[in-house]
C-alpha cells in the first residue's frame, strides 16, 4: 500500500448508506430470527435464541462500520437518550428499521407459503400475551427490564474504554440470553421493529397487541439511557 493510500482520510458513510445498512441489518434480523421460528414450526428455545443472537452478531460485524448496527428502534432511542447518537438521525433510522423488518416479515411469508397448508395467522413468530401465557403486566415489566439490560450492555461495550473487537460478540450473546429468558413470556421482542415487521402479516391478536411491544421496549431503552451514567459514572 502506498503512502498516499495509507494517509487518505476515511470517508464517513453517507446518510443513504447508513439507512441502507439499517434496513438490511433489520431485514436480516427478522428473516434469521423469526424465520427460525416459522420455518421450523416453533423451533426449540435454544435454537431460536441462537438464531436471533447470531443475526445481530453477524450483522454487527458486517454493517456496524457503516451505521453502528442498531437494527432496533429501542437501541437507536436509547443511544440518543444517552447522548451517544444524534436525535436528528433517529427518525430516519427508525423508519429504515421498520422497512427492513417489514421486508423480512414479507420474505418469511412468501417462503412459508411454499409449504402446503401454511396459514399466516398465528404462525408468523409474533409477540403476545394472555391465554395460557403470562399476563399483560408481566409482559410489560419483562420487556422494559430486558430492553434496559440490553441497552446497558450495548452502552458498556461501545464505550471508548471498552475493547471494540468484542462488541459484536457480546451484544449477540446478550440478545441470545434475553431470548432464553423471555421466549416463554411473550416470544421476546425488545425490538419494536421486529414485532411490527411480522405483526402486519400475522394479523388478528398480533396487531391488536403489538402496541405493547412498541411502547415497553422504548421505555426500557430510555430508562437505560437516562440512568447509565448515574450508575456507571461513564459520560
From TrEMBL:
<dbReference type="InterPro" id="IPR000425">
    <property type="entry name" value="MIP"/>
</dbReference>
<dbReference type="GO" id="GO:0015267">
    <property type="term" value="F:channel activity"/>
</dbReference>
<dbReference type="InterPro" id="IPR034294">
    <property type="entry name" value="Aquaporin_transptr"/>
</dbReference>
<keyword id="KW-0812">Transmembrane</keyword>
<feature type="transmembrane region" description="Helical">
    <location>
        <begin position="167"/>
        <end position="185"/>
    </location>
</feature>
<feature type="transmembrane region" description="Helical">
    <location>
        <begin position="21"/>
        <end position="40"/>
    </location>
</feature>
<dbReference type="InterPro" id="IPR023271">
    <property type="entry name" value="Aquaporin-like"/>
</dbReference>
<feature type="transmembrane region" description="Helical">
    <location>
        <begin position="93"/>
        <end position="114"/>
    </location>
</feature>
<keyword id="KW-1133">Transmembrane helix</keyword>
<feature type="transmembrane region" description="Helical">
    <location>
        <begin position="205"/>
        <end position="226"/>
    </location>
</feature>
<dbReference type="GO" id="GO:0016020">
    <property type="term" value="C:membrane"/>
</dbReference>
<keyword id="KW-0813">Transport</keyword>
<protein>
    <submittedName>
        <fullName>Aquaporin Z</fullName>
    </submittedName>
</protein>
<dbReference type="InterPro" id="IPR022357">
    <property type="entry name" value="MIP_CS"/>
</dbReference>
<dbReference type="Pfam" id="PF00230">
    <property type="entry name" value="MIP"/>
</dbReference>
<feature type="transmembrane region" description="Helical">
    <location>
        <begin position="46"/>
        <end position="64"/>
    </location>
</feature>
<feature type="transmembrane region" description="Helical">
    <location>
        <begin position="134"/>
        <end position="155"/>
    </location>
</feature>
<keyword id="KW-0472">Membrane</keyword>
<comment type="similarity">
    <text>Belongs to the MIP/aquaporin (TC 1.A.8) family.</text>
</comment>
Amino acid at each position: 500500500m502506498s503512502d498516499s493510500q495509507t494517509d487518505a482520510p476515511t470517508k464517513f458513510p453517507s446518510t443513504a448508506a447508513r439507512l441502507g445498512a439499517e434496513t438490511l441489518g433489520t431485514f436480516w434480523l427478522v428473516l434469521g430470527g423469526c424465520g427460525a421460528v416459522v420455518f421450523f414450526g416453533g423451533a426449540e428455545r435454544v435454537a431460536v435464541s441462537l438464531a436471533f443472537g447470531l443475526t445481530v452478531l453477524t450483522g454487527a460485524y458486517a454493517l456496524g462500520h457503516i451505521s453502528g448496527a442498531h437494527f432496533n428502534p429501542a437501541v437507536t432511542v436509547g443511544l440518543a437518550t444517552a447522548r451517544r447518537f444524534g436525535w436528528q438521525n433517529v427518525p430516519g433510522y427508525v423508519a429504515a428499521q421498520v422497512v427492513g423488518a417489514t421486508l423480512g416479515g414479507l420474505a418469511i411469508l412468501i417462503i412459508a407459503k411454499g409449504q402446503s397448508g401454511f396459514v399466516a395467522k398465528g404462525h408468523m413468530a409474533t409477540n403476545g400475551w394472555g391465554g395460557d401465557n403470562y399476563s399483560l403486566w408481566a409482559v410489560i415489566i419483562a420487556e422494559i427490564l430486558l430492553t434496559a439490560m440490553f441497552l446497558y450492555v450495548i452502552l458498556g461495550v461501545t464505550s471508548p474504554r471498552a475493547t471494540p473487537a468484542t462488541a459484536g460478540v457480546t451484544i449477540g450473546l446478550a440478545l441470545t440470553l434475553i431470548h432464553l429468558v423471555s421466549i416463554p413470556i411473550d416470544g421476546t421482542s425488545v425490538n419494536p421493529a421486529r414485532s411490527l415487521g411480522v405483526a402486519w402479516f400475522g394479523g388478528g391478536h398480533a396487531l391488536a397487541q403489538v402496541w405493547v411491544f412498541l411502547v415497553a421496549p422504548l421505555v426500557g431503552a430510555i430508562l437505560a439511557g437516562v440512568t447509565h451514567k448515574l450508575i456507571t459514572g461513564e459520560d
